[in-house]
Amino acid sequence: MGRKWNNIKEKKASKDANTSRIYAKFGVEIYVAARRGEPNPESNQALKFVLERAKTYNVPRHIIDRAIDKAKGGSEESYSELRYEGFGPNGSMVIVDALTNNVNRTASDVRAAFGKNGGNMGVSGSVAYMFDPTAVIGLEGKTEEEVLEILMEADVDVRDIIEEDESVIVYAEPDQFHAVQEAFKNAGITEFTVAELTMLAQNEVTLPEDAQAKFEKMIDALEDLEDVQQVYHNVDLGE
User: Fold this and answer.
1) First-residue to last-residue Cα distance in the chain
2) For 190-226, how does the pLDDT look when each residue is reduced to its tens digit (9 = 90+)?
3) For a 10 Å CB count at each end of the chain, is N or C smaller?
4) What's the pTM value of the predicted model, to 2 decimals?
């Protein structure tokens, strides 16, 4: 799991370096979650999850409040959840999740980001079967043994626990996300380095240097798109 954690770190570091764009995307995601259920995270698990993620990216309170207030105000702006699948250089695999109020625009933009960078879009199901939906929660200040003890006492099952770079990373089934967090919170742990529902590749690939440079340019182009919320792939980006 170590290489997979490295890819998550690289992705998060990239997002941390583009805060204004990331904050705007979280604003949309929070609005959509609040509008589709109660605008209260205690009764809306989807909203609660988004807010937990937003916390790990230090999203300002005023952005969160503005998105929730917009949902409370009965805004009629609606968004569609879309998933695109495609291939990058050397057959690398990519999944793109988007929230959009203009499906045609988003499809065109995603297709162009693939095509201009040595990739191409595939049909639905052409890539996703090679990825596993996974909850990933990271924390600092505990050892792998201490984390395992906390989870065992809470009777929470997880896939794997690794200790790396002064962090402990827990991989679990998506439906165990809140159970894992509650176990930690009951143990007095309230700060997390990562709290994501992600798509982890079953097998990662290493690209030649020239292909990796082209691949990273393609990923950057996809992540820069206004409507794109998440990009997952199966390339080992290295240290």
Assistant:
1) 14
2) 999 889 999 999 999 999 999 999 999 999 999 999 9
3) C
4) 0.88
Using CB atoms within 10 Å of the CB of residue 51, give its burial: 0 to 12 exposed, 13 to 18 middle, 19+ buried.
buried
Burial class (CB in 10 A: 0-12, 13-18, 19+), 197: middle
| Residue with tokens 């201009």, as numbered in its chain | 116
CATH superfamily placement of domain 131-201: YebC, transcriptional regulation domain (3.30.70.980)
Q: Do domains 80-129+202-233 and 131-201 have the same CATH topology?
A: yes
- Cα–Cα distance, 4 to 8 (Å, whole number): 6
Structure tokens belonging to residue 213: 């440079």
Q: Which amino acid is at 110?
A: V
Q: pLDDT for 145-157, tens place per residue? A: 999 999 999 999 9
DSSP calls for 65-119: HHHHHHHHTT-----EEEEEEEE-GGG-EEEEEEEES-HHHHHHHHHHHHHTTT-
